[in-house]
Specification:
Elements (H helix, E strand, L loop, with lengths): L2 H30 L11 E10 L4 E9 L12 E5 L5 E6 L1 E3 L22 E4 L30 E9 L12 E6 L5 E3 L3 E3 L3 E3 L6 E3 L2 E9 L1 H4 L5 E7 L2 E5 L18 E2 L6 H8 L8 E2 L7 E10 L3 E10 L6 E2 L2 E5 L6 E5 L1 E5 L9 E6 L6 E2 L7 E9 L16 E4 L2 E2 L16 H24 L1
Parallel strand pairs: 14-18, 16-17
Antiparallel strand pairs: 1-2, 1-13, 2-7, 3-6, 3-8, 4-7, 5-6, 9-13, 10-13, 11-12, 14-15, 18-19, 19-26, 20-25, 21-24, 21-27, 22-26, 23-24, 27-28
Length: 455
């Protein structure tokens, strides 16, 4: 009789353990959202180098490195924010500026600080800034290229003079609560960590100096934090099937003119031109062409031709957004035949090889001054290219959707693929053919049964 309470206790314990495992799995799912299997080490690192001490603070060079292979920051650019640990103020800046000065009324005379806010936000200066306000790698309007696409422009920097701070590496307090917007949400920054001092080589390359103090901040990207809904989708077609597999319905949102009027432009409306011109006045909100998927970007993969030893694919990227041009766009695609890619037409190509020696991931982007700018929706709102693959006899097949990509990214965001059972199929694998063969088999079996019965 005494074992029943223990049994009930163990049942409660098992129930609590199950709930705890479920809770941890949910937490792990949310943490892994910022992990990108194609770019596991991709991040934005912010490095502070204290280069000299002043009477009540220090002068530091802040450098932002975009170590992400294919995710970049486009106009209107990045915004970097933090909170001071004590009562620090920004006395002056070069190569950047804060968006607000704050209350500096307690300072007298002409030496008014650049910013007195407890939580300043810094932006990059625009191109064409006077040289006496610049430093190296500044003044690009906040645009930051991806590391593979343009490593020279994947770095930006500004110089800041901080007052009312410590004057040695023992009294300085590191800033905290770093935020990075690019230009919206999406990045989560960790705490500042003191690291080994950076070293600098003089222009004549005969002397090496080093920072007096250095700390790093690492920021990771999450597509879910950047935008709750997807931003792109994929459609498919092939030469061996007349079916065009469109993007799934409501991929990036559903068209609902009652709840959200004016969020899309219907080209079938007789007043669409006037509606578009009037809506351009409010450029803070996105405006896309009315479609079943409501995505601003659609990537179309078309299996175009089949040769004896090669096969060809045509890729078309269409911009449905009437309020945005995509500068320095890029596309990342996964397909097992990229190891045998022979030629690309009008696109740049770089193999990413995220899985050591397995080459199944390619990064594609436009040629500078030719098609590196994806224009807003309209006649010029698309770019396209063709890829020529050599056939690998052991793996090549048009059957079961093998010719279509496994995954596609646009500007670093994962695009929604159609369901596998909707892929264009080979004529020999037609469902009607399967039904016909099944019916024929049934007829043959019935005839044999009747023949045996009469005999």
């Amino acid at each position: 009789m005494g074992f029943f309470p223990k049994a009930r206790a163990s049942t409660k314990l098992r129930g609590f353990t199950s709930f705890l495992v479920f809770l941890l799995s949910c937490l792990n799912f949310s943490f892994s959202d910022a992990y990108d299997v194609l770019d596991p080490r991709g991040n934005i690192t912010i490095k502070w180098d204290v280069i000299s001490w002043t009477s009540d603070g220090y002068i530091a060079v802040v450098t932002v490195f975009n170590f992400q292979k294919y995710r970049h920051i486009q106009a209107p650019g990045w915004k970097l924010g933090w909170s001071w640990a004590k009562k620090e103020v920004i006395l002056s800046m070069y190569g950047g500026q804060t968006i607000e000065q704050g209350d500096c009324s307690k300072f007298k005379g002409n030496n008014i600080p650049h910013c007195c806010k407890k939580d300043p936000t810094v932006v990059d200066l625009l191109p064409g800034t006077p040289y006496n306000q610049q430093i190296a790698n500044c003044c690009r309007g906040g645009v930051l290229s991806s590391w593979v696409q343009d490593p020279e422009n994947a770095v930006t920097a500004f110089q800041v003079t901080v007052g009312q701070a410590g004057t040695s590496n023992k009294t300085v307090r590191l800033p905290k609560n770093f935020t990075l917007k690019a230009p919206g949400p999406g990045y989560t920054c960790g705490p500042a960590e003191i690291v080994k001092q950076s070293k600098f080589i003089t222009p004549d390359k005969r002397r090496v100096t080093q920072a007096l103090m250095t700390w790093n901040v690492t920021c990771m990207y999450s597509q879910f934090l950047a935008q709750k809904a997807p931003t792109c989708c994929v459609s498919l077609s092939s030469f061996y099937n007349n079916t065009i597999v469109n993007c799934p319905a409501c991929t990036c949102g559903c068209r609902n003119s009652l709840i959200q009027p004016g969020t899309c432009v219907d080209l079938d409306s007789p007043h669409w031109a006037s509606a578009l011109s009037s809506s351009r006045k409010n450029s803070d909100t996105p405006l896309v062409r009315c479609t079943s998927h409501m995505c601003p970007i659609r990537v179309h993969w078309h299996v175009k031709l089949n040769y004896k030893e090669y096969w060809r694919v045509k890729i078309t990227i269409t911009n449905f957004n009437y309020r945005m041009n995509y500068t320095q766009w890029n596309l990342v695609a996964q397909h097992p035949n990229f190891d045998n890619l022979t030629q690309t037409f009008s696109f740049n190509y770089k193999s990413l090889t995220p899985y050591a020696s397995i080459n199944d991931t390619a990064m594609l982007w436009g040629i500078k001054f030719y098609n590196d700018l994806l224009m807003e929706a309209g006649p010029s709102g698309s770019v396209q290219s063709e890829l020529l693959f050599r056939k690998e006899k052991k793996t090549f097949s048009f059957d079961k959707g093998w010719a279509f990509p496994r995954r596609i990214y646009f500007n670093g965001d994962d695009c929604v693929m159609p369901p596998p059972d909707a892929y264009p199929y080979l004529p020999s694998a037609s469902p009607h053919m399967v039904i016909s063969m099944s019916s024929l088999l049934t007829t043959i079996l019935a005839s044999l049964f009747l023949l045996l019965a009469y005999n």
